[in-house]
UniProtKB/TrEMBL annotation:
This is Zinc ABC transporter substrate-binding protein. The keyword Transmembrane does not apply. It comes from Brytella acorum. One of its GO terms (cellular component) is cell envelope. Gene3D superfamilies: Nitrogenase molybdenum iron protein domain.
Length: 294
């Protein structure tokens, strides 16, 4: 409630200064936003409505956004953007490089990690963190109102609806947490980290998942540790990122199945057309179901 009040005061301030802001901008038309990952474009278009057009570079849940081979077509897409959105926090360095080589007049690069002051060693899957997504949504709302003050009523209505979706997720997290807190899990990759923390779950040997994310060979003792946790019933679930596979990771899935440990897929991105909040809610549901088995 306090958070909403603060945001509403903030919006009143933005609307008060918006006409002055708009005068300082040479362009006050629909903003074309190009995002490194589809999830940020989904949130932007939910907030922006008719004030934005969006295009995302990585859109498939099967893709690994940490490791993207860039192409001239991607550079051309970025060159058309008024605003480029990258996750940042070392998640998509390829996108920052693309944006840097394609600087245009008035083009802005919005780095979510910087914007929300994510610490350098933070889990880079920032879309898993409700506070980060909320801060990003508020920033976009203020920026778009500043650019198109006449659309302030529509933008405020959209921002308020999105705030409501975040609030509902917060309540759902509290409810699921009461059933699963303190359970221990193994994860093949750190996606979902902020969600696990919010639910009070403990990731066994997070170093293992970090090594996978960095495409380095996990230490043999760490592999043995997570295997042991699956074999001896210490782990209540194995969280498996389908975008990152290897013989060792597939072996962990086999070990989990052989010992009756639920395997929970957790991808880096919503399905095309799926909203971020529905994806988040779906992941809560699947985690709850898996963790209630043990
Ligand atoms: Zn990842």
């Amino acid at each position: 409630m306090l958070r909403r009040l603060v945001f509403s005061l903030f919006l009143n301030w933005v609307i008060a200064i918006a006409p002055a802001l708009a005068q300082t901008l040479t362009q006050s038309q629909v903003r074309h936003v190009v995002c490194a990952e589809a999830v940020w474009c989904d949130i932007t278009s939910q907030i922006g409505g008719s004030a934005v057009t969006t295009q995302a570079i990585v859109v498939s849940p099967q893709a690994d956004p940490h490791d993207v081979m860039t192409s001239p077509a991607m550079a051309r897409d970025i060159a058309k953007a008024d605003i480029v959105i990258v996750n940042g926090a070392e998640y998509d360095e390829w996108a920052l490089r693309l944006a840097a080589t394609s600087r245009g007049a008035g083009r802005e690069t919005l780095d979510v990690g910087r914007l929300t002051r994510a610490s350098p060693d933070a889990n880079p899957h920032l879309f898993d963190d409700l506070g980060v997504v909320e801060a990003f949504a508020h920033h976009m709302t203020a920026e778009l109102i500043g650019n198109q003050p006449r659309k302030a009523p529509e933008l405020m209505q959209r921002a308020s609806a999105f705030d409501g979706a975040i609030e509902r997720l917060r309540q759902r997290v509290v409810s699921v947490k009461s059933e699963v807190t303190a359970k221990r899990i193994v994860a093949t990759e750190p996606v979902g980290g902020a969600l696990f923390t919010a639910l009070g779950l403990e990731v066994i040997c997070p170093r293992f998942a970090l090594a996978v994310m960095h495409h380095t060979e996990p230490a043999p003792r760490d592999l043995a540790l997570v295997e042991g946790a699956l074999e001896t019933g210490q782990a209540a679930a194995l969280i498996f990122n389908p975008a990152v596979t290897s013989p060792a990771l597939n072996g962990l899935v086999d070990t989990a199945r052989a010992h009756g440990v639920p395997v929970v897929p957790m991808s880096e991105m919503p399905m095309p057309g799926q909203h971020w909040q529905d994806w988040y809610e779906g992941r809560l549901t699947i985690l709850k179901q898996a963790l209630s088995v043990r």
